[in-house]
Amino acid sequence: MRPIQFYAIALLLSPPVASIHANDAVATVTKLPGCVAFWDFVQRESGPDSRFVAHVPAGSPTIYPLDAANYIKDYWGAGSEATYADFPLLGRGPFGQAIRIRKEDDPDFRPFLYVPRSRLHDTPLDIKGENKSVSVVVWAIRESGNHALAGIWHEGTDLHQKETASIQKVERGQRQYALFGGLNKMGSACGHVSENGASSFLNKYALHKSNSVGQTPEVPADSPVDVLDGAWECFAMTFDHEREELTGWLNGVAGDRWLENPKDDRLITSAYQAWLQGCLHRKPGQQLGEDPEFPVDQFYNPPEDEPISVSVLSDFAGERVELREYRYTKVKVVLRKGDDGAFVEESRDLVGLRLNPWWYPHGIYVPKDAASGGPFTIGRVIHSSRGVGFTGWIGGVAVFDRALSEAELQSLASLRQRVTSVER
């Protein structure tokens, strides 16, 4: 396959004076097949108020210029406008430049960079629907927080909680895909996708997410240059629709992450209930504990055809208890010996759930029109809780319309170790 050819529009873009290394690093990203947009925070429009624009493949309908906004002002009518001045520049990074997402003290100020929905709807960046895969890669230094790095992930402002008491603009969730800095596993690379734009398993939050085994340390954003140069991390997420797997990757390594006893987890207990209700629903008749009102499309039952391993936990007085490990689940099964001497399953319980990779059997949410779709945001997402989220430096954001391989992700991760600066 020939590499995708990338272009620059000379009259629109102000070409930077870049080192050979910076150009090579950009080419490493853009020549990978499937790259639909790559912001290196070096390439800009021309003019005094020039915006960051993406490297895009030839024929792309847009170069995705990034606007600055404070979503608190847009949705609550409070706080000041955001500008590019609210994103300090480092002057160096894996591609020569980086923007800072700061710990804002003002609760009415949550700035981010974004591509409005009107400029991305139905473009290559708008990855959605059945049989679609996606990868998001972000080179960053995490100072604090565990929230969004980049993606189309408008969480909605419709949750009824104290933060929304004074809200002026209420919108349903418009989630598609995004990469986070950990969420429930602080500092991990956390991939998120949604089939409906809203919540999962009757929980108020979307819960289809994966967490890399690796977790990043916290590095003060004002550290000396030599410290920052050695602190770059490569966060990534992939969704492979053919394998039905969502995976988080940190520095090119995914790792197997399991959650033991998901029934007792504050959030994942909802996935446990979705698994249980699906199991009960498959049995004839009304079962003890079955909720007939539980929506069928929210059952969560990863394949459990052939176990990878079986351990006998006990075998006594005609009762055998087995721990069966499958690709995505660990199930404790109780079997009872019948009059014919054969063991018959009496009950089963989910005792382990795989968080990386995460089984996801759906397509990606398809907004009915541009008005019901979310923007692509960098640094933060629109959400009801108004938290500070991730803080630190972001030195590059790339989106691909396929699931990158481990080797490709390791190649991209190696760029974090080759820091350079670019003069304008």
DSSP summary: helix tally: 6
| Estimated structural class | mainly beta
Flag low-confidence runs: 1-19
What is the number of E strands? 19
Termini separation: 34 Å
Radius of gyration: 23 Å
Please tell me the overall pLDDT: 93
Relative helix content: 10-25%
- The CATH class name of the largest domain reads Mainly Beta
Described by strand count, sense and barrel closure, the largest sheet is:
7 strands, antiparallel
Shape: globular
Q: How large a portion of the residues is in β-strands, by DSSP E? A: 25-35%
CATH architecture of the largest domain: Sandwich
Structural commentary:
The strands form three sheets. Strands 1, 3, 5, 10, 11, 17 and 19 form a seven-stranded antiparallel sheet that branches. The chain is globular and about 85 Å long. Strand 15 and strand 16 form a beta hairpin. Helices cover 11% and strands 30% of the residues. With 424 residues, the chain is mostly beta strands. It folds into two domains: 294 residues, Sandwich (Jelly Rolls); 94 residues, no CATH class.
